[in-house]
């Protein structure tokens, strides 16, 4: 009798643990994240100075688990260093590079720094009549964090927004996308994104992200994919005051992802 009771209790505990941990695919019912997005302008500041150290300090001060980065050279004549690699050394984070084009003997594109080593990553090419762009999809244990930098041309941005939605719909964990969308909230590309994502609203007084020394426009966003039932409880979503380090201001969001 005691043995049967023990087995029954063990089964109940196992069922309870499974229900608390989330669905059968290993995902959690809620995930806490603290993320940054930063167009670093190749670590060239508003004063014209190239400094990976200044950008790394902004990232380190943010104490984030991942940062989506735009405008990165790798071994080009313009900047004959691996910019993302240097930032990785200075922050102690894992680098994931998504080169969009060959440039001046090297590469140029977007990237990600993460405290956790990614499980996988891949790049999706996006249209741009002036230069190719990319969507970088990085898989972490509990979620995907994606980075992008859209075209300066509206038609390209609209097409890119639709590609992004289609690609992210294939993923089986919560998905956050961040980047320089080169579009306002009121424009068609962001309306497409907004119909499938929660484009997180800033919680601080400062909303605009460019130019860094006198911000007039909001074109940098962090967004949670909501088509599969995820919602965000936002604790903080701010624009960081870093007026010299790059031509964009970085944004930082801390929130809980809740899933059905």
What report would you give on this structure?
With 260 residues, the protein is an alpha+beta fold. Helices cover 24% and strands 35% of the residues. The protein is built from 5 helices and 12 strands. The strands form 2 sheets. It has a 6-stranded mixed β-sheet with strand order 3-4-2-1-12-11. It has a 6-stranded mixed β-sheet with strand order 5-6-7-8-10-9, covered by helices on one side.
What topology emerges from the helices and strands here?
Blueprint: H1 2-21, E1 30-39, H2 52-62, E2 66-74, H3 83-91, E3 94-103, E4 106-114, E5 120-126, E6 133-139, E7 144-149, H4 154-168, E8 175-180, H5 188-194, E9 197-199, E10 220-225, E11 231-239, E12 251-258
Parallel strand pairs: 1-2, 7-8
Antiparallel strand pairs: 1-12, 2-4, 3-4, 5-6, 6-7, 8-10, 9-10, 11-12
Short note summarizing the structure:
Helix content is 24%, strand content 35%.
């Amino acid at each position: 009798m005691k043995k049967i009771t023990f087995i029954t209790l063990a089964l109940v505990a196992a069922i309870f643990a499974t229900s608390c941990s989330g669905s059968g695919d290993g995902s959690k019912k809620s995930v806490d994240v603290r993320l940054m997005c930063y167009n670093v302008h190749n670590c060239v500041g508003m004063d014209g100075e190239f400094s990976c150290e200044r950008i790394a300090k902004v990232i380190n001060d943010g104490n984030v688990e991942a940062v989506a980065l735009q405008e990165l050279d790798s071994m080009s004549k313009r900047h004959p260093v691996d910019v993302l690699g240097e930032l990785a050394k200075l922050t102690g984070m894992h680098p994931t590079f998504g080169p969009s084009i060959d440039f001046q003997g090297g590469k140029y594109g977007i990237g990600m720094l993460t405290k956790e080593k990614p499980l996988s990553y891949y790049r999706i090419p996006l249209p741009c009549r002036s230069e190719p762009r990319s969507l970088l999809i990085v898989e972490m244990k509990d979620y995907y964090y994606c980075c992008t930098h859209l075209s300066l041309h509206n038609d390209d941005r609209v097409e890119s927004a639709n590609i992004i939605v289609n690609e992210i719909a294939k993923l089986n964990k919560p998905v956050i996308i961040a980047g320089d969308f080169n579009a306002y909230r009121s424009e068609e590309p962001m309306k497409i994104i907004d119909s499938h994502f929660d484009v997180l609203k800033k919680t601080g007084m400062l909303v605009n992200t460019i130019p860094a020394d006198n911000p007039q426009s909001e074109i940098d966003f962090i967004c949670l994919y909501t088509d599969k039932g995820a919602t965000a409880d936002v604790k903080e979503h701010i624009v960081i005051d870093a007026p010299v380090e790059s031509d964009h201001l970085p944004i930082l969001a801390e929130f809980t992802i809740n899933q059905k």
